[in-house]
Specification:
Cyt_P450_sf, Cytochrome p450, oxidoreductase activity, acting on paired donors, with incorporation or reduction of molecular oxygen, 387 residues, 5-stranded mixed sheet, 3-stranded antiparallel sheet, globular, Cyt_P450_CS, 9% strand, alpha+beta, iron ion binding, 16 helices
């Protein structure tokens, strides 16, 4: 199996790893796969033994011309996702404040209006490509709003965030790398200027500007938030709708019993974790699940596999919105738990409530859905819907 095939269809690999004794080394990941629920939870509970350094190790190293485009531009500093201890706590505090329940609640009228406007824009068409028309725009507009960006700047900023991801995870010709790096540099300059003007603003950018002293740190963490703040929700918006419609009985049940919306969201997150996992670096010789690991070894902690563990979830490969709730690990666990999980859940709740009410005849217009070739935001590449 090559890396792209693994990224598009990881579940058979997960299943074999859960059934195997100890950990399984996966060549395509260049890491030991932590696949069982108990082992995933243990690693996430021991950040001192399993460092977040290199959590998102690149698949591709950009060339020198691309790096030259970023020279002298603010950014390039560590971010909350890939730090430990005091540095991680310092980076996380502004996010915790900016994504607090009170701040999320205050943003909900904006989310509802935006969601209703997007659905209204295609409701009379009878057909839509869901990912492009809704699943990508809604979270991007919302995170731009929370950052306090000018709405006119959000589309280019989101595109540049995706280009930053492409630079590290998608092989490209050198000229395309350079073009992507120029967009990333423009985004960093935009975020730097915005942060300098946001010192007193009650926005995520304002929280970062007040909580961090270094311009590179502020820009890097704002850029990371720009990307991570919407990709997880985009993935969930895609996979939740996909699986609800793949088994028509699930969608019809949700329409008949809209009080099951919260359960549907948790089942979707368990069944297809939006972020399939992150790497961790072993900090000392230790044994995990009977496998001896050396200092410096890399493990891939699979949230996506943990959600299909039969020792925790009955019929784990069945999507069932009536499932008795069991705590999944798809938003992480411990000190690195996702600070934006409440915001993601609220966007999913608003979306499903709108769809059930406005488009109860929703169905898959095409069954041949292809998953994106990434483990960072697992979702359909395209999802054509009709009603």
């Amino acid at each position: 199996m090559d890396r792209e095939a693994l990224y598009r269809g990881p579940h058979p690999v997960y299943a074999r790893a859960r059934a195997a004794a100890g950990l399984t080394f996966v060549e395509e990941l260049d890491a030991w796969l932590v696949a069982r629920y108990a082992d995933v939870r243990e690693v996430l509970s021991r950040p001192g033994d399993f460092s977040s350094r290199g959590a998102l190790r690149p698949d591709v190293l950009p060339g020198p011309r691309a790096f030259a485009e970023l020279a002298g531009v603010p950014g390039g500093a560590p971010v909350v996702l890939s730090t430990d201890g005091a540095a991680h706590a310092r980076y996380r505090r502004p996010l915790t404040r900016g994504l607090s329940p009170a701040r999320v609640t205050a943003a909900l009228p904006f989310v509802r209006d935006t969601a209703a406007g997007l659905i209204g824009s295609f409701a009379k068409a009878g057909q839509v490509e869901w990912m492009a028309a809704y699943a990508r725009p809604l979270p991007a507009i919302v995170i731009g709003h929370l950052l306090g960006l000018d709405p006119a700047d959000v589309p280019a900023a989101v595109r540049a965030g995706h280009r930053a991801e492409d630079l590290l995870f998608t092989p490209m010709p050198e000229d395309e790398q350079v073009a992507a790096a120029r967009e990333v540099a423009a985004l960093r300059r935009l975020l730097d200027a915005h942060a300098q003007a946001s010192g007193t603003a009650r926005t995520l950018t304002g929280e970062l500007a007040r909580g961090l002293d270094d311009r590179d740190e502020i820009v890097s963490n704002a850029e990371n938030l720009m990307l991570a703040g919407h990709l997880t929700t985009t993935a969930l918006l895609g996979s939740t709708v996909h699986h609800l419609l793949l088994d028509r009985r699930q969608w019809e049940l949700l329409c008949a019993r809209p009080e099951l919306v919260p359960a549907a969201i948790e089942e979707a997150a368990r069944y297809e974790a939006p972020v399939q996992g992150f790497r961790r670096t072993v900090t000392r010789p230790l044994t995990l699940s009977g496998t001896k690991l050396a200092e410096g070894d890399t493990v891939f902690v699979s949230f996506g596999s943990a959600g299909r563990d039969a020792t925790v979830f009955e019929r784990p490969d069945t999507f069932d919105i009536t499932r008795e709730p069991v705590r999944h690990l798809s938003f992480g666990h411990g000190v690195h738990g996702c600070p934006g999980s409440l915001l993601a859940r609220e966007q999913l709740t608003i979306t499903l409530e709108l769809l059930v009410r406005e488009l109860p005849g929703l169905h898959l217009a095409r069954q041949d859905v292809v998953m994106a070739a990434t483990l960072i935001h697992r979702a359909p590449e395209r999802l054509l819907l009709g009603w």
